[in-house]
Structure formats: structure tokens, C-alpha cells
Specification:
Length: about 400
């Protein structure tokens, strides 16, 4: 069997990131607008790449099948492991829940069927790739990234040629204050780079920490490129004031695409953006599903057999599907809740694991994240600050943009 390519792994990481979360970034960043959104998203990419590397460094002391549950329980105490498990499963379920709910809205219109039936069919078809194998997810991820790239380029080209600098810079509100809104954007941006449940999957896939590191970096760079180009093109076409209805509608995909329809004349561009939206939701669902699948298999000790994989599939996908059928809610709310909990396992725990494992003599051998303990403390600080900002936003202690 040929060795897996770095591009394939990078596409898996990118597909986890560049999903429905991407479509939520313009709504979440409407208050911060162009400059501060770019700063917040870029800073988050750097921090989340480093935190993923720290987790990868900690994992090098264990066999390739070990995931978050085993290493956290072994290196840190059981209480921290319980908190980590709850936060990781909560975030995974919330994201899958958000993607399933979004898929119901998208595919019900596309296929002309009931939203709940559309959600069930979506889960049945797309989760089959995860059930089969990581290699199957690799192949479909590359295909979806190609679909996303082509549709993205067509859609973006139509938006890019119509970018209006006064709209992009919001020159009608020269004295407006944008920076405070960037604080509430950070949890959404953090979730948009939340690939960490796939770190152990990448390590097991390559059987080489250095190749896994390159795949992670490649994936987060691909995601950053998508995000920045997308945000710039949206903000250059859709005035800041026009985001009011989108935000009030929960920041969902349908609300954003409907708002874009009012400023896009080309039908081909409209269709390309819709295709991109579909590919984004599917790719993110499969990528997140794979990470949660491998995590739960490790947690429950299920074997990598047909029967074992079916058990893991059931506890991975059925709970979020049932919740989406019973009570779908605002997209940004779901992503925001995920962002608050994700700071625990995407920033704080990986840094603590790396710090603890560095105390053993073998820690200097193999892959080590640059920056020493400074990197560890910076990543922890970023996670704590982001969580605090989200709590403040929920308590209405931060300004929330409403158009």
C-alpha cells in the first residue's frame, strides 16, 4: 500500500475546519468588520496550529491508537480527564448537531423533501465514509476540497470583481468602534480551527509525528486562505448594515446566502456559492465525525472490527441526529457554545499535556514544538482569554453587533 500523502492529511484537517463554521464567520465578524476580523482570524490560526502541535508532541510517547482520553487520564488526573472528555464530546456533538441541522435546511430545498428526512438521509450517506475507514475520508475529503475550491473560485470571482472599497472599509461609519466586537469573534474563530480531535488520527494515519505536523500546518493554512478571501469578498459586497437580518436570523447559511442574493446579479455565481455551502457542510461533517469517531472508539475501547465500528458509529452520529430532529436552533449559537467549551481541549489541555510530558528524559527526542514553555503559556493564555470573552458576551458584558 502506498504511503498516504501530506496533501491528503492536510485536506482532512482543512475539511474539518472549512465547513459551516466558515459560513458563520462573516456574520460573527460583522461587528469587527474587515481589519479586526482579519487580525482575529489570523491570530487564532497561529494559536490553534501551535496547540495542535503541542498535543502531537505529547502523543509521541504513546502508541498510535491512543487518543485524548487515554493520554489525559495518564498524564493529568482523572478529574481533569472527566472535564476534558465532557468538553470534547460536547463540542463534537454540538458541531455535528449544527451541521446536521444546516444540512436539513439546505437539502430539503434542494431535493424538495421534509427537513427532518433530509437530515436523516444526510447522516446516513455522509457518515458511511467515516464508518468505512480513514482512507475513505481522505479520498472524499480531497474530492470535497476540489468541489469547494472550484465553486469557491467561481463564487469568489463574481464577488471579487464587484468589491467596493468604501463598503469593504465601511467608510460611511468612519468614527465607528470596531475592535470591541473582535473579542466576541474569537470563540467563533477558535471553533473554525477546531481540528484537534483529529490530531491522534493524523498521527496514526502517518505513523510519523513530523508528517502529521506538516499535514496540520498545511490544513490550517488552507483554512486560513479560504477564510480570509471569503471574508474580504463578503465584506466588500454586503454592507455592514445589511448584516442585521442575518445576525437576527441566527447567522445561518440560508440567511447569509439570501442576503448575498440581493447583491449578486449573476445566477452562476449564486449557484457556485450554494454548491460551496453544500460542500462546506458535508466536508466539515465528515471531518468532525471522523475525529469524534476515533475519540469515542478509544474512550469505550471498541475494536477496529465491523461490529466495533458499528458501535462507535451509533454513539457518534445518532445522538446529534436525534437532537437536530427534536430541536434545531440558531447556527451561531451552536458554534459559539462549541467555541467556549473548545478552549479547554483545543488550547489548555494540549498545552498542559506537553508541559507535563516534557519533564521526562525522552521528551527531547523526536518531535518538539519550538518556543519552549513560552509557547505553552501563550497557548494557555489564549484559551483562557477566549473563554472569558465568550462568557462576557453571553452575559451581555461585551458589545454584540445587531446591525
Amino acid at each position: 500500500m502506498s504511503k498516504p500523502s501530506t496533501l491528503g492529511g492536510a485536506c482532512i484537517i482543512a475539511s474539518v475546519c472549512v465547513g459551516a463554521g466558515m459560513l458563520g464567520l462573516p456574520s460573527a465578524g460583522a461587528g469587527a468588520w474587515t481589519f479586526w476580523s482579519v487580525i482575529a482570524i489570523s491570530l487564532t490560526m497561529v494559536m490553534m496550529t501551535l496547540s495542535g502541535w503541542l498535543l502531537l508532541e505529547a502523543l509521541k510517547h504513546y502508541n498510535f491508537k491512543v487518543s485524548f482520553n487515554t493520554i489525559t487520564k495518564d498524564v493529568l488526573n482523572r478529574k481533569i480527564n472527566v472535564i476534558n472528555n465532557l468538553s470534547l464530546y460536547f463540542v463534537g456533538c454540538i458541531l455535528l448537531y449544527a451541521y446536521i441541522s444546516s444540512s436539513g435546511m439546505i437539502f430539503s430545498n434542494l431535493l424538495g423533501i421534509n427537513e427532518k428526512l433530509a437530515s436523516v438521509l444526510f447522516v446516513a450517506v455522509c457518515s458511511a465514509f467515516v464508518l468505512h475507514s480513514t482512507r475513505a475520508v481522505d479520498r472524499i475529503s480531497i474530492l470535497l476540497i476540489v468541489f469547494m475550491l472550484v465553486s469557491f473560485l467561481i463564487g469568489i470571482s463574481g464577488l471579487a470583481v464587484n468589491i467596493q472599497i468604501p463598503v469593504l472599509l465601511d467608510t460611511t461609519h468612519l468614527h465607528a468602534s470596531y475592535s470591541p466586537y473582535a473579542l466576541a469573534l474569537l470563540p467563533i474563530a477558535l471553533t473554525s480551527f477546531g481540528y484537534h480531535h483529529s490530531v491522534s488520527t493524523m498521527r496514526d494515519y502517518y505513523r510519523d509525528e513530523y508528517r502529521a505536523k506538516n499535514a496540520i500546518l498545511g490544513g490550517t493554512f488552507i483554512a486560513l486562505g479560504f477564510y480570509l478571501v471569503w471574508v474580504l469578498c463578503i465584506f466588500g459586497n454586503l454592507p455592514r448594515d445589511a448584516f442585521g437580518p442575518v445576525v437576527s436570523a441566527g447567522g445561518g447559511i440560508d440567511a447569509l446566502t439570501h442576503a448575498l442574493d440581493s447583491v449578486i446579479d449573476s445566477n452562476s455565481v449564486k449557484q457556485a456559492i450554494r454548491i460551496f455551502s453544500i460542500a462546506a457542510v458535508v466536508s466539515s461533517f465528515i471531518g468532525v465525525g471522523l475525529g469524534v469517531f476515533d475519540y469515542l472508539a478509544d474512550f469505550f475501547g471498541f475494536e477496529d472490527s465491523k461490529q466495533g465500528r458499528m458501535k462507535t458509529w451509533a454513539i457518534t452520529f445518532i445522538p446529534p441526529l436525534l437532537f437536530s430532529l427534536v430541536s434545531p436552533f440558531g447556527f451561531l449559537t451552536a458554534i459559539g457554545l462549541a467555541g467556549a467549551a473548545a478552549t479547554i481541549w483545543a488550547c489548555i489541555i494540549p498545552a498542559l499535556l506537553a508541559k507535563k510530558t516534557r519533564q521526562c528524559k525522552a521528551s527531547k527526542e523526536g518531535f518538539v514544538v519550538p518556543g519552549g514553555n513560552v509557547t505553552v503559556y501563550v497557548v494557555i493564555g489564549f484559551g483562557v482569554v477566549t473563554a472569558v470573552f465568550h462568557i462576557m458576551a453571553m452575559a451581555n458584558l461585551l458589545p454584540i453587533f445587531k446591525g
